[in-house]
Amino acid sequence: MLSRNEYLKLPLEQRFIPLDEAKAARANRLFDNLPTVDLHTHIFGSLHFSFDYEQVRQIGVTGLFEAVPAVSEDFDESMRLLGTYKNLVAHQSGLISATRAEDIRRAKRERKQAVLFQLEPQTVGRDPNRIDVAYGLGIRMMLMTFNTKNYLGDGCSERTDCGLSYLGIEVVRRLNELGVLIDLSHCGIQTSLDTCKHSKAPVLFNHTGARALNPPCKRLKTDEQIRAVADTGGLIGICAIPNQLSRNPEQGVEDMLNHIEHIAKLVGIDHVAIGLDNVFGDQVGHHRQMAATNIVNLERSGIVLAADYMYGIESPLEWRNIVRGLVSRGFTDEEITKIVSGNALRVIEQVVG
């Protein structure tokens, strides 16, 4: 097995899943011709701001649902970050600041990329009126909780599993009324189930996987949670985060494909999407830094840093390899279209517009 440094020295094409000539041509055609949507991105960095438009362009993905990562959970900080990000988008001719599904389709027609924005973590605090402000400034998705408890409910790494508070129920109602997507990726089991019960619109796990394939990891979702989200008409976006999808010392795009297959068999292809959640830099190093600064508690999350990287999907630059992987696993063109954009566009249009 190559070290991460050795792996990154490989030309991009050598990191891809090998396909015969006909299948490779089919995968390239699908990726080049379809709009593609990533439901959880960090093109502006996560813990630390970083932006390289040329790297973003090379991803080749049409719709990027970018997280605004105010880890302090301070509302003013999150709005300052949002303004900074939107300013950068506005000054790149190849990017579109998007707020609806048609913006993504238009970006594909114009050979551009559409950037939408979500709050992760959410910064509402005790004031639901902040949702209106965030919506007015361009937010179209919001995470209900991070890994720990907040005023709305319990996170997935919390000691308790108490579900939504009364304020949480009110926030769900407000998000539904405004047309803001609800993300439950970091929420505890009961908070997820309660949100599914109270939401009048489809909800999402926009960057996660199936806990059935890695039971100790609390960031992954139980089959019960996955079914509950699917029953709302919502989506499960499969992530590419090392040491969440697997505990093996060697991890990669094949693990991601395993989670796609599990969830497709469990609830149907119409509820599967992509939300990579990875960065351009060292993802495992990033997690070590988050743990060292007490932003996350790996032990409480059931995460062991067994692998140093994800081969075949180590960064957003390898997004094309997802399509190659789906081709290699025998998915049809129709199924691949749904996974990489069709399902996401359907739910964005239904909830946001």
Explain this structure to me?
This protein is 42% helix and 13% strand. The protein contains 14 helices and eleven strands. Helix 2 packs across helix 13 and helix 8 packs parallel to helix 9. The longest helix has 19 residues. The model has no long low-confidence stretch (mean pLDDT 97).
Number of domains as seen in the coordinates:
1
The CATH class is Alpha Beta
Residues in helix, %:
40-55%
Q: What's the helix-strand series?
A: HHEHEHEHEHEHEHEHEEHEHHEHH
Structural class: alpha/beta
Give the terminus-to-terminus CA distance.
46 Å
Q: If helices are DSSP runs of H or I spanning 4 or more residues, what is the number of helices?
A: 14
The biggest sheet, with number of strands, parallel, antiparallel or mixed sense and barrel status, is: 6 strands, parallel
The CATH architecture category equals Alpha-Beta Barrel
- Which fold name fills CATH's third level, the topology? TIM Barrel
Which percent band covers the strand fraction?
5-15%
Kindly list the characteristics that best describe this protein.
alpha/beta, six-stranded parallel sheet, 14 helices, globular
Write a compact overview of the structure shown:
By secondary structure, the chain is an alpha/beta fold. It has helices at 4-8, 21-33, 53-59, 75-90, 101-109, 129-136, 166-178, 189-198, 223-231, 253-267, 283-292, 298-301, 320-328, 333-351; strands spanning 37-41, 63-68, 95-97, 113-119, 139-143, 181-183, 204-208, 235-238, 251-252, 272-274, 310-311.
Write the layout of secondary structure elements.
Blueprint lengths: L3 H5 L12 H13 L3 E5 L11 H7 L3 E6 L6 H16 L4 E3 L3 H9 L3 E7 L9 H8 L2 E5 L22 H13 L2 E3 L5 H10 L5 E5 L14 H9 L3 E4 L12 E2 H15 L4 E3 L8 H10 L5 H4 L8 E2 L8 H9 L4 H19 L2
Helix pairs in contact: 2-13, 8-9
